[in-house]
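Question: Send over one sample?
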Amino acid sequence: MARGANQKLKLLYLKQFFEEHTDEEHPATMQQILDYLKVNGVDAERKSIYTDLDDHFEVIVTVVVSPQFYAWVFGLEDNVTITAPDSVVKQMKDMLAKVSKRYDNEKA
């Protein structure tokens, strides 16, 4: 993606969006975030938003915990962390340990 002139302002626009358009009762969708940035001259992709928000924001979402949920989280690599509830954190850790163990036992 070519970097536009407003790319340096992306974090500022993100901060402004969350302050003006969200609260605990009014969460935002990723599409709303992307649309807001586009209106302000910033073209962005979903993954770049996750990267930009890392260490800057905590996002609380309601999800259906399923194998697909864990696959989605795994696909985001180190750009997302499950922090609660403890049972979901534990299940994610257990699944990652099983996958890691499978590869530890393979010969190089």
